[in-house]
């Protein structure tokens, strides 16, 4: 899936606030038509895309306004590991050599364990986008669906530990070992998602297991869990209420961590 290209739209969140999104001809979220990012790419799903956040509250906006860093955002909502991998490879293949990134930052979270299971092959691959739109927009359709897999990110259950043979770990191995991906350019960021009681889901064991996995693969990880808890204690808007996606405080934390690493700041 990709975002629709060349759009400038405004939507209303579950809390009644509005957010806008603008895309370029590649279907990538941008700050404005004047942006020309090259060196820093941000990849991932809704967390990197800034789902639910107005343009002026996204990680890319904070990177530009606070650190003068233009960022290319290659991210789509509700996409799993393989989807992110394909988007990145397509972007690398279609980019001129002089415009390739010096660093790539991936905001990762355990929702991939669910999204990867949804990324079907064959006919199901084409039916899923229809299912996704109906589940977003039709109360009747949602009422007919079976209960989703138990995971705190879905706001519908208690967290479970996914096994080492889960498809996400297989997809990650394929991703990280592909010759088109330069591992020394790829950095993994992660933090706590929101639990169903709208607090950091510190009971989810998958964050620790995923971090161990990435380190074993030789990846650099940027762990923002403690700082996220501190922001929450300070009553900052870490999450979008009733939604679970990162709020402006968490988006700014992402930007600060990325800029610190990218610019080699103390």
UniProtKB/TrEMBL annotation:
SUPFAM superfamilies: SGNH hydrolase. It comes from Leptospira kanakyensis. This is SGNH/GDSL hydrolase family protein.
């Amino acid at each position: 899936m990709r975002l629709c290209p060349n759009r400038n739209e405004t939507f209303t969140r579950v809390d009644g606030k509005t957010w806008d999104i603008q895309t370029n001809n590649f279907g990538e979220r941008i700050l404005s038509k004047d942006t020309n990012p090259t060196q820093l790419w941000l990849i991932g799903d809704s967390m990197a895309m800034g789902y639910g956040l107005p343009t002026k509250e996204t990680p890319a906006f904070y990177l530009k306004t606070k650190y003068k860093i233009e960022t290319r955002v290659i991210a789509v909502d509700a996409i799993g590991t393989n989807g992110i991998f394909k988007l990145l490879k397509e972007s690398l293949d279609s980019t001129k050599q002089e415009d390739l990134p010096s660093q790539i930052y991936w905001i990762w979270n355990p929702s991939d364990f669910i999204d990867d299971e949804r990324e079907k092959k064959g006919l199901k691959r084409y039916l899923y986008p229809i299912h996704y739109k109906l589940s977003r927009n039709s109360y009747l359709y949602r009422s007919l669906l079976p209960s989703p897999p138990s995971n705190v990110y879905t706001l519908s259950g208690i967290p479970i530990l996914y096994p080492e043979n889960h498809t996400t770990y297989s997809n990650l191995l394929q991703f990280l070992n592909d010759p088109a991906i330069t591992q020394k350019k790829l950095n993994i960021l992660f933090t706590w998602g929101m639990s169903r009681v709208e607090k950091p889901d510190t009971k989810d064991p998958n964050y620790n297991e995923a971090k161990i996995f990435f380190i074993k693969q030789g990846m650099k990880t940027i762990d923002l869990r403690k700082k996220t808890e501190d922001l929450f204690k300070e009553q900052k808007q870490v999450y979008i209420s009733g939604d679970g996606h990162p709020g402006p405080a968490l988006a700014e934390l992402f930007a600060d961590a990325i800029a610190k690493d990218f610019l080699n700041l103390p």
